[in-house]
Amino acid sequence: MMDAIRDDLEQFEANLRTVVKSDVPFIEAIGDDLLAAGGKRLRPTLAFLANHALGGVTQHGMTVALSVELLHSASLLHDDLIDDADTRRGAEAAFRRYGNVVSVMSGDFLLARVLGLLADANHADFTRRMSETAAKVCEGEVRQFQMAALETWSMDEYYRVIDGKTADLLATAVAGPAILNHENRDVVNTFERFGLAYGRAFQLQDDRLDLMGTAEELGKPVGGDLREGKATHSVLQLIERGHEEAIGILRRHASEASDVERMRQLVKGEGADDLTVEAITQEIGAAQEALAGMPEGPEVDALGALVDRELQRLR
């Protein structure tokens, strides 16, 4: 599926190494961790596929790929500290290894590198888009904390959280090349709609598996969101019905030994998981509809394969 952008991804890793280089050893070490961890590189993959689908300038795809990945990585450094996480991608979280100051300032260092990339691109519309996306990422994280702290649980708030945390950044990864290549607004909107719908499906599925999956699938214990007091889609189905037992589990952050398993039973037994699957399927349909408006070719087929993967994760 990724043959069309294999060279781009290899060059991306080399360019990322250059961008995160620092003569401060601790910052350099966190940059090395970022390179070694690798991950799925989903956001760069989306940027390169979109750029090739448009026949765009190679450097534009690289600018978007580096910008969104650095913004994402900076947010992870900050998120791990906020969430008091022990690990990230199977390795010890940066703030636990190097301390809070190093972790936060290294995240800020990555954001500073994004500013440099935007200056080099010299494209006001894309700079504005990245600014808006960065603000939405921050708002999404704070909104999630606020919803838990104030118990302002609602499905509308939840969707605003997942848009801010995930979908908006994926939409920028897909729409960014169209913006830099000066495509018309209809083209930009089509690519953006795909990114938003795919991003929502992706995050809905991740949240679902955090409760309904297995530790082997996740690489970590299930129920992490519950233990942090986060109300995800299926749990919110029960909360909005006024389900007292579910509300009690969420309020105490699933602190009792049987809480996570009990919530799994409630979500499954009362049809809330089925509604979450339905919501994911709807977002997948919206992504597929957006794909139909894109130019035909192997890159768009590859975007479709990513959507199909979300369908497979439902099984």
The CATH C-level name is Mainly Alpha
Relative helix content = over 70%
The CATH topology name reads Farnesyl Diphosphate Synthase
Strand arrangement in the largest pleated sheet = 1-2
- The number of domains is 1
- Low-confidence blocks of residues: none
CATH superfamily: Farnesyl Diphosphate Synthase
What structural category do the secondary elements indicate?
mainly alpha
Instruction: Please outline the major beta sheet.
Output: 2 strands, antiparallel
Describe the structure in your own words:
This protein is mainly alpha-helical. It has a single domain (3-313), classed as Farnesyl Diphosphate Synthase (Orthogonal Bundle), CATH 1.10.600. Helices cover 77% and strands 1% of the residues. The chain has helices at 6-19, 25-37, 42-53, 58-83, 94-98, 100-121, 124-150, 155-180, 185-212, 215-218, 224-227, 233-239, 244-251, 259-269, 272-291, 298-313; strands spanning 87-88, 91-92. Strands 1-2 form a two-stranded antiparallel ribbon. A hairpin with a 2-residue loop joins strand 1 and strand 2. Helix 3 (42-53) packs antiparallel against helix 4, helix 4 packs parallel to helix 7 and helix 15 (272-291) runs antiparallel to helix 16. The chain is globular, with a radius of gyration of 20 Å. The two termini are 21 Å apart. The model has no long low-confidence stretch (mean pLDDT 90).
